[in-house]
Amino acid sequence: MQVKYAYLDQQFAEVDEYFADLRRLVASGEFTLGPFVEEFERKFANYLGVKHVIGTNTGTDALILALKAVGVKAGDEVITVPNTFVATVGAIVAVGARPVFVDCDDRYQIDANRIEAAITKRTRAILPVHWGGCPADIERIVSVARQHDIPVVEDACPAVGAKVNGRSVGTFGKASAFSMHPLKPLNVWGDGGIVVTNDDKAAAFLRLYRNHGLKDRDHVEFWGVNNRLQPVQAVVALRQLDKMHEIIETRVANAQRLDAGLASLREFVQSPRRPAGYLEVYQLYIASVARRDELLTHLNERGIEARVHYPIPLHLQRAARDLGYRAGAFPVCERQAREIITLPAHQHVTAEQIDFLVETMRGFYNA
Ligand SMILES: Cc1ncc(COP(=O)(O)O)c(C=O)c1O
């Protein structure tokens, strides 16, 4: 039995409704910003429960814009976590700031209890990541940040729909970024990003900066860039947003079935703690396993496309050599990097496939 990691061919097997919308777009000739992007921004604001939504080209752009909107400048420090996709750190460096890492907690998220010790006079933002679609301890992070009067920018790129005590991630910080990359829960036909904020001043900056700083056709308020969300992607995203509830429900059901199946392998496999009130969207289903590399080969050879996100933490990448971190600096993150595995549990995996996955793991451990 095959259990695939990528599912885009299945997800978009039926495309007639999207093509009908795209025909409307082409007939309108509204190819830069315009009504489709605006409709998506309104609809996403409503979905998330946030005041301002600004569509961008990518999640990475959304992060860069969010950092700029809260005032991060060259020479500032931004606190984040070393087990994330490279874009989190790339965005910090892109605005001229220095990434300062904090170790992970037992849920593979930034350890909120270690943030305070990393704050210096230069700290200009805290950038937690809702890694793998699992909410970081955002209430505690916001409380620490408030005590020090430092803005929080959430990297919610993998986490559209995730919630803490009923409130969507991305609405806790001063500004937050989402990605609509094809392998994110809310996905489009290429790249797409979203930056959100409840702050009117930040929103006014973001709207202009994303579009060359143009107030109107002839007036430039300040120098900006072109980071606009493509209307073609807004058309796809509008349809996808209607499906989010069902997508998340299926992912949660799959994750619960996997958690239950893996509970019998507790000696070898540990799923992370899942606190009450935290709604995860399982962009990645991550667990810690014994003999990880052997298990990975075993699963892959049997048609189960397991992966590792990621085997090398960012502070140990060549790109980080100027930051001065050594192996051993973040022991929890480094241990997790050796133990974690990503198992397919997305919305196109069936209950039968999950049972096969659990059985295959049981076979590996002779359990
Ligand atoms: C945690 C995280 N941050 C940032 C990004 C960047 O998003 P994008 O690929 O849309 O630029 C991604 C995903 O790719 C991500 O997983």
Q: Would you spell out the secondary-structure blueprint of this structure?
A:
Blueprint: H1 8-11, H2 16-28, H3 35-48, E1 52-56, H4 59-69, E2 77-80, H5 86-94, E3 98-101, H6 115-118, E4 123-126, H7 138-148, E5 153-155, E6 163-164, E7 167-168, E8 175-179, E9 193-197, H8 200-209, E10 214-216, E11 219-220, H9 231-262, E12 269-270, E13 278-279, E14 285-289, H10 292-301, H11 331-339, E15 340-343, H12 351-364
Helix pairs in contact: 2-9, 3-9, 4-5, 9-12
Protein model, in words:
- The chain has helices spanning 8-11, 16-28, 35-48, 59-69, 86-94, 115-118, 138-148, 200-209, 231-262, 292-301, 331-339, 351-364, and strands at 52-56, 77-80, 98-101, 123-126, 153-155, 163-164, 167-168, 175-179, 193-197, 214-216, 219-220, 269-270, 278-279, 285-289, 340-343.
- Helix 2 packs antiparallel against helix 9, helix 4 crosses helix 5 and helix 9 crosses helix 12.
- The mean pLDDT is 98.
- With 367 residues, it is α+β, with helices and mostly antiparallel strands.
- The two termini are 21 Å apart.
- It binds pyridoxal-5'-phosphate (PLP).
- Pyridoxal-5'-phosphate (PLP) binds at residues 58-60, 84-85, 87-88, 129, 155, 157-158, 179, 181, 191, 193.
Work out the helicity level. Answer: 25-40%
CATH class label of the largest domain? Alpha Beta
**Regions with pLDDT < 50 over 5+ consecutive residues?**
none
Relevant CATH superfamily of the largest domain: Type I PLP-dependent aspartate aminotransferase-like (Major domain)
Shape label: globular
Share in β-strands: 5-15%
Tally of structural domains: 2
> What's the pLDDT, averaged over the residues?
98
What is the number of helical segments per DSSP (H or I, 4+ residues)? 12
**Named CATH topology of the largest domain:** Aspartate Aminotransferase, domain 2
- The end-to-end distance, rounded to whole angstroms, is 21 Å
What structural class do the secondary elements suggest?
A: alpha+beta
Which strand order do you get reading across the main beta sheet? 1-9-8-5
| Helix-strand string | HHHEHEHEHEHEEEEEHEEHEEEHHEH
CATH architecture assignment name of the largest domain: 3-Layer(aba) Sandwich
Main beta sheet, described? 4 strands, mixed
In total, the number of strands is: 15
- Rg, alpha carbons: 21 Å
The kinds of small molecule bound in this structure are: pyridoxal-5'-phosphate
